[in-house]
TrEMBL record, chain A:
Keywords: Protease inhibitor, Receptor, Repeat, Signal. This is Retinoic acid receptor responder protein 1. One of its GO terms (cellular component) is extracellular space. It comes from the Eukaryota. GO terms for molecular function: metalloendopeptidase inhibitor activity. Belongs to the protease inhibitor I47 (latexin) family. Residues 268-289 are annotated as: Disordered. It holds the Pfam family LXN.
Amino acid sequence: MQPRGQLRSAPRPGPARPFAPPRALLPLLLLLLALRGAAATLKDPGTVDAPEPPSPGMLQQAARAALHFFNFRAGSPSALRVLDKVQEVGWQVDPTRGYQVNLVFSTQAYHLQDRERRLGRCSAQVLFKNQKPGPAVTVRCAPLPEKHMLREDRLLFKQLKQLKGALNVSSIPDDYGNIDPSLRPMWDLAVLGSSYVMWERTTQFLYYYPLRISSVKQWKTSDHAIDFDYIILLHEFPTQEIIPCHIHLIWYPGKWLKVSYHCEDMQTPEASSGTEEGSAVAPTDFSNF
Amino acid sequence: MSTVPPGVVQGISPVEAMLAVGLLHEDEGRGVGVITFFRLSQLSRHHEGGDCKGTRLWRSSQKAVPRDNLCRSLAQHRKQVVDKTGSPWKSLETYSYNKYHPMEEIYQWMSQISEKHAEVVTQHFLGMTYEMRPMYYLKISQPSNNPKKIIWMDCGIHAREWIAPAFCQWFVKEILQNYTDNPRISRYLRNLDFYVLPVLNIDGYIYTWTTDRLWRKSRSSYNNGTCFGSDLNRNFNVSWCSKYCASQNCEDLTFCGTGPVSEPETKAVSSFVESKKEDILCFLTIHSYGQFILTPYGYTKNKPSNHEELIQVGQKAANALKAKHGTNYRVGSSADILYATSGSSRDWARDIGIPFSYTFELRDNGTYGFILPEVQVQPTCEEAMEAVLSILDDIYAKYWLSNTAGKVTSTTVLLSLLWLFTSLL
């Protein structure tokens, strides 16, 4: 991954063409190349099938994937973020690896009533691997009030431990979009688990949002973890399909988030995240953007 | 007139089914005889008066009943139904525009609205759904001698997008509450008629209330009843069913139907809109979710001739929307900012010559999706209203203000030339 502002490798369009500029022109050529490199992107317009800059749709894809991944890695149901605005910073195509988008985006709190005036800001590099889902994501977000998040999560953990009748839950939210306040922590936790699934399934063309918990299969709480087994309905774009995904997660604030899942349209056996340490990603300096 | 079998109308009580009535009437001057089946509770004064004359009526017991007797008993039954139920919401005064309403309530609301505001609102029959339900639109029109242009709005082409029909009702309410004393709105009605179809995919909408909240398509039956529904917004006759833009497989949620305009709902809308296309200036189709104002096209990345203008007007509308509650809506062509689609009503409308054609995708953008909390109905409708009013302002200015300005300008130029000429003599 090359640092921003420097020369990026232009994609090679097939067999290499021999190119030997006259010696006198070399310094001029180098100067021109350096100047082009100072611009945000570098493409070769002379090629027949030159790759194109990311479309607005692709940018949104990249931002969504990055945010799902961030939400999962943060491992905090109280700190779930949603996308606000997206801006491309650079892009790069490597036929062997895939299409990489560099971007910055702003975020808001997940629930409307929690939305502060100050937006969160993130920068990310997202590599859509050729024909494969689960883009490689590097993402940093700020501001991250880690202590605050942990406090909120611990409160949420307590509320969840006291929850009665979790197994009787049939639909969150109900048909009118209502979520009982006592069940909202369960919804947040379910969305957190689904973030992993949605990130893993995202490609350049397919993306997801969580719609509803349709049933709770298992609910076990202890002092050490919440063990939550549920079916969540994901809305898939652009097919418009509703995909039921059976997710099993184990969570403890600030420590554990383990997610395994099986979606109803999957051919392959269960995918699992292994044990991830839930930790907030360190903030970064945004003065360059 | 041929014998008509009893209408099959699902989702009504057995008692009401027995009182289903078939009315044969002329369809909006197209000279077609249509049998419409109503539950008696749906009949409004319009139908009683107009349709009882010169029509043959059947009860579902298939016994022809003398005309006058049946009309009287229809009126009686309707009164009984209203009196018996007597729930508070049955009155227009207590109708809540902040909630989602089932189809029965929306039918009731339409007839009550057209009764209460009979001086400007009339309810019109558009066609029948697959499951034999009547499709109605409301026409809001201030009587006058000058010819009018038309603004068309439809909601709920996709069944699960409940916020859309809620917005159509909100829009009608706002126009009717404000047209007498709000100059911005009253001037529209001098030159414009509003045609509002609150629920386009009625069968699907009812299905989301009775069976599956996340149903999207219509409820037509295929493959011997093993597969249901077309995506009505892939069924219009514009680049129909092109690859990657729609599906040819009935199992899929973007199934384009068995042919362009194969579905009765699509046929009803497109025949009518086609017949009025010379007068329609604006075609708005309301969906959720995503927070977009989308311009043509979805079936190609090429742009219509007035693309710049559509974007400009759309962006101004999005700004007006954002000013209300801070919500961000993105503006652009479907193919550019969303994904490729073929056979959409908006693209079709543009291609038959309707200049301002937009798809609105209302709140939200992924938090709740289709299942938008009821508490957000009001703010969503308020902000979307600002966007629509902004578009109407621009249309009004373009067609009725710039003409005047144009005349002034050309007169000024002419006078200046005359003065110049005379001063040179």
